[in-house]
Amino acid sequence: MIAFDQDDPTIYNPTKRYSPRLIHLQSIMTSQVSVNSSTTFPSAYYDPKGGTVINANFDSGNILVESVDSDCVTLRLRSEPFTEGTDKRCHSQWFYFRSSQIKGRSITYRIVNAGQASYPAGFKNYRTCASYDGEHWYRVHDTTYDDAKGILLWNHCSAEDTVWFAYFPPFTYERHQQLIAKAAMSELCSLRVLGLTLDHRPIDYLKVGRGKLNLWVNARVHPGESMAEWFMEGLIHALLDEANEASRSLLCEATIHMVPNMNPDGTVRGHLRTNASGANLNREWCSTGDYSAPSLQRSPEVYYVLNEVKKIGCDAYVDVHGDEEIEANFFADCAGCPNWSPRLKSLFDEFSDAYCQASEDFQRGKGYGSDEPGQANLAIGADQITNRFNCLAVTLEMPFKDATFNNPEPERQWTPERSKALGAKLIHAFLKVLPSLKQPAQQRM
Ligand code: ZN
Predict the structure, then answer these.
(1) Distance, CA 224 to ligand 1 centroid (Å)?
(2) Which of 360, 397, 411, 417 is catalytic?
(3) How far is CA 194 from its chain centroid?
(4) How far is CA 103 from CA 72, 97, 99, 402, in A?
(5) Nearest-CA neighbor of 395 among 413, 428, 371?
(6) Residue 103 Cα to ligand 1 middle (Å)
(7) Would you tell me the crossing angle of helices 227-239 and 173-184 to the nearest 10 degrees?
(8) What confidence category does residue 290 fall into, taking pLDDT thresholds of 50, 70 and 90?
(9) What is the Cβ-side half-sphere exposure of residue 98, based on CA atoms within 13 angstroms?
(10) 3-class DSSP state for residue 44?
(11) Disulfide: which of 205, 314, 333, 438 matches 389 by Cβ 3.0-4.6 Å?
């Protein structure tokens, strides 16, 4: 352990308990501190003597530093704000940070509160993601999860001075802005801002095509599920590709409405599951029990988007997510909805089979299973849309680990590239169900 200057608030000594004033200064210098544990840890660590430097103070960053030795870095996941009413807990799981001044050194990184994360079982058989340039990511195969102690750890010998580690390759807010800018420059696409988030960020909505059917694809209500926006990038690029015949055919019949990032505040803040107020935006689509939703005070993202869906209408809806535990791509159905019918079941089956044909990464053998009849939670996006519009609506889940069920790739596992390819293939699945979606409304029951 290296000794530190106690009077310099930018330098953190984990063996000391600091005065409130010093913690305040540190929180200014490092911008994030843990507020949910009795001990406070910073999100940056700097060694003036040239040792390891850890930092998570950037777009989508999340980590707290407990201690740094020459060959071992001890870390903690930073918790999200308490989720009132629904989840009644502080979520955590997402991490993203950089480690510097480490070239040629073997270091063990330990996340010692991984066992208290939202889905600790998701760390079993998990491999940490790493990158030297922020563009190309690979898996650290020497990753293990100590179930008994709740510690996630990996050993890494760095080929460069700096390496970034993340739960999954991040799709940062900066990249989101680039995606939106590029899409809006296409003559095929229009951009509108539906409203502002609690941190005053725009809720970006893209519209492509002029066909009669209204197909919605929204992503990333859970911001740590970054594969969901990689998926959207693949889908948007394919829709705007003038040489893509499937896209051209789809857009003759349908208009595609998309909110590629439903939770920009959570994205920037490095959250797994909630927005700036701690709301789980996939439990905010109607009032239930002891809380009212969606509301401008707590969940403006859902408030504005649901209003827009009500104005435009909806013939099919895909809500794009990632699942921490299940190693497969799959749809969750809405069989627990009060209006679930043979027609909706048939549409779900047709859509699922079409996606299986379109992509070898998609499958139907592994998933959540169905709710019992009438037991759906209508505060969940896809269930609310199914019930309100009597239409096909699914939750699409992608893995954080590998898609082992039918198409394992042990070396690279699930990646941004595979997410993007799956996004592009959604167009083919939509095309297959268009004739069924075109049935007149009176035949829909
Ligand atoms: Zn999710």
Answers:
(1) 8
(2) 397
(3) 20
(4) 14, 16, 10, 29
(5) 371
(6) 36
(7) 10
(8) confident
(9) 18
(10) strand
(11) 314
Angle subtended by helix axes 381-389 and 300-312, to nearest 10? 30
Q: How far apart are CA 433 and CA 253, in angstroms?
A: 12
- The one-character DSSP state at 79 is P
Instruction: Tell me if residue 397 is catalytic.
Output: yes
Given a contact cutoff of 8 angstroms between Cβ atoms, the answer to whether 318 and 394 are in contact is: yes
Mean pLDDT of 317-338: 98
Q: How far away, in angstroms, is 379 Cα from ligand 1 center?
A: 14
Q: Domain spans of the chain?
A: 20-166, 173-443
For 75, counting Cβ atoms within 10 Å of its Cβ (0-12 exposed, 13-18 middle, 19+ buried), the class is buried
Residue 436 Cα to ligand 1 midpoint, Å, equals 28
Cis before residue 338, ω within 30 degrees of 0?
A: no
Phi/psi at 49 (nearest 5 deg)?
Answer: -95, 10
> What's the gap in Å between 233 CA and the centre of ligand 1?
17
The Cα–Cα gap between 43 and 62 comes to 7
pTM for the predicted model, two decimal places: 0.91
- Name the fold adopted by 20-166: Immunoglobulin-like (2.60.40)
The helix or strand, by DSSP H or E, that contains position 354, with its residue range, turns out to be: helix 342-358
Given a cut of 60, whether residue 197 has pLDDT beyond it is: yes
- CATH architecture of the domain 173-443 equals 3-Layer(aba) Sandwich (3.40)
Question: What token pair was written down for 339?
Answer: 């209006």
